[in-house]
TrEMBL record:
It is found in: Chromosome, Telomere; Cytoplasm; Nucleus. GO terms for biological process: positive regulation of transcription by RNA polymerase II; telomere maintenance via recombination; tRNA processing; tRNA threonylcarbamoyladenosine metabolic process. The keyword NAD does not apply. This is EKC/KEOPS complex subunit BUD32. It comes from Spathaspora passalidarum (strain NRRL Y-27907 / 11-Y1). InterPro entries: Bud32, Kinase-like_dom_sf, Prot_kinase_dom, Tyr_kinase_AS. It comes from the Eukaryota. Component of the EKC/KEOPS complex composed of at least BUD32, CGI121, GON7, KAE1 and PCC1; the whole complex dimerizes. Its EC number is 2.7.11.1. Keywords: Activator, ATP-binding, Chromosome, Cytoplasm, Hydrolase, Kinase, Nucleotide-binding, Nucleus, Phosphoprotein, Serine/threonine-protein kinase, Telomere, Transcription, Transcription regulation, Transferase, tRNA processing. Gene3D superfamilies: Phosphorylase Kinase, domain 1, Transferase(Phosphotransferase) domain 1. GO terms for molecular function: ATP binding; ATP hydrolysis activity; protein serine/threonine kinase activity.
Length: 270
């Protein structure tokens, strides 16, 4: 199956060595060491290629239109974030008709070999704490250290920055937040479902999706992590950098309560 997927993308990217690293419902993500405009370079940098393959269950014309619209939308969001100075992959190249986005590779490998997503980093700390617990007795302080609090605050600030610029991520999970080698500064990735909206409802749904993601993947410490995340979100809204930030924060948090209530009702009804 992997060979088939690689063959599919290489029909549009001949002679480009790629390694598949992620497969989602809409797109495939590949890693490559080849730059699209400088293929003879011996630079050891890595790049990411995101490819939306054709969907056989859709009419070809409709599928082509959807692919182009979503690829253009993703590229526009990445360009907008770059202009705003918000950490996200730099857009290198794109092929809208064939659903390809070529971008900067972000992150580093954790000691256990996993990429430094926010989720993987928290998991690594939990695994390390459990190993120490087995040897020395119960001590989970590593998972709620000042460093973790700082990173959570920074993640909250980052989300606040995109919301204050009316960018909605659309799939805001801890997997789509990458920590950079420089002091674990967070960056956002995967803008396939992103959009532009000033509505508090859309921003609240973004926050709720992340809140639920933290709860499902880090349940023991989820209340602490989410509290720290929202503190960072609040801090950036109340900073002097953004006019009307305090008002927008109040509107979004008020709407978040409504979104949570709807979520609880759905859970009760199954």
């Amino acid at each position: 199956m992997t060979d088939h997927l690689i063959a599919a993308v290489q029909t549009h990217l001949p002679n480009i060595d790629v390694n598949i690293i992620s497969q989602g419902a809409e797109a495939l993500v590949f890693e490559t060491t080849t730059h699209p405009y400088n293929q003879t370079s011996e630079d050891a940098s890595k790049y990411i290629i995101k490819y939306r393959p054709p969907k056989p269950y859709r009419h070809p014309k409709i599928d082509a239109s959807i692919t182009k619209i979503r690829t253009v939308g993703e590229a526009r969001i990445m360009y907008k974030l770059s202009k705003l100075g918000i950490p996200a992959p730099t857009l290198i190249s794109s092929d809208f008709n064939n659903g390809i986005v070529w971008m900067e590779y972000l992150g580093y490998n954790l000691p256990n070999g996993n990429i430094s997503s926010f989720k993987n980093w928290l998991w690594f700390l939990e695994e390390t704490a459990k190993a120490q617990q087995d040897e020395e007795g119960e001590d989970l302080s590593l998972c709620v250290s000042e460093e973790v609090k700082l990173v959570c605050n920074k993640v909250g600030e980052l989300i606040g920055r995109i919301h204050l610029n009316d960018v909605i991520h659309g799939d805001l999970t801890s997997s789509n937040i990458i920590l950079l080698p420089e002091n674990n500064e967070p960056a956002l990735i995967d803008f396939g479902l992103s959009s532009i909206s000033g509505l508090p409802e859309d921003k609240a749904v973004d926050l709720y999706v992340l809140e639920r993601a933290i709860l499902s993947t880090h349940s023991v410490f989820s209340n602490t992590y989410n509290t720290w995340l929202l503190q960072g979100y609040k801090d950036i809204h109340h900073s002097k950098e953004f006019k009307q930030g305090s008002k927008k924060y109040s509107e979004t948090i008020k709407r978040l309560e409504d979104v949570r209530l709807r979520g609880r009702k759905r859970s009760m009804l199954g």
